[in-house]
Amino acid sequence: MPAGFPDFRLGSVLATSFTATLTERCGDAVERIPTPQRLVDWLAVNGLAVDSCTTAQLELARALRESIHAAATAAAMHDALPASAVQAINDCSIHGRAAAILTPEGDRQWRLGSAARVEDALSVIAADAVDIISGERDGKLALCASPTCRAAFFDTSQSRSRKWCDMNTCGNRQKKARFNANRRENARD
Question: Which one is predicted more confidently, 50 or 177?
């Protein structure tokens, strides 16, 4: 990855990993796809390689990202899904040309058209969002307990009680803050 850009946060769920291209939403937001090329990079890392991306396609991708985040947040909070978010997800889902294929190992992979476009990749991400938001996949939508993050994530842990979008970032940050607060408290005693 080119120097100067923040690393991608990659997870096992495509739709929520995509929403993690904007992190620290309630703090100092970090945009992880600031340029069209960074979106191309993110898509490639996630098995959705496209040839190029325009500024308009980047804006479409960001609009989808925010729609998925809004709908996933509403679903996690058991609120009504925002109609505009549902429409944006559905529009992206139906406007792409992608096919699910079965690998020899028994896994599902997405194959984009021969002239892969950003819209094709976004349709796969939107379809994944439909799966998790509609409850088609085994797991639970939740919101990160970090007050500066509040990312929507898909909890597939056995107890469905995960608190952090990513233990290596938000979880460790919160544990470190709690440890330091306890240390300061003990130093006063």
Answer: 50
Asked if 188 contacts 31 with a C-beta cutoff of 8 angstroms, the reply is no
- Helix (H), strand (E) at residue 181: helix 172-188
Return phi, psi of residue 122, to 5°. Answer: -65, -30
Contacts of 148 (CB under 8 A, 6+ apart): 24, 25, 26, 27, 28
What is the reported pLDDT for 166?
78
Model pTM? 0.84
Q: Which two tokens stand for residue 17?
A: 């990993």
Separation between Cα atoms, residue 164 and residue 59, nearest integer Å: 28
Check if the beta carbon of residue 92 is closer than 8 Å to that of residue 64.
yes
Q: HSE of 93 in the Cβ direction (CA atoms, 13 Å)?
A: 15
Cα–Cα nearest to 124, from 22, 33, 17, 35:
17
d(CA 182, CA 46): 40
Burial of 29: CB neighbours in 10 Å, binned 0-12, 13-18, 19+: exposed
pLDDT at 157: 86
User: DSSP state, 78?
Assistant: T
pLDDT in tens, 10-58: 778 999 999 999 988 888 888 999 999 999 999 999 989 999 999 999 9
Task: Assess contact for 21 and 32: CB atoms under 8 A.
Answer: yes
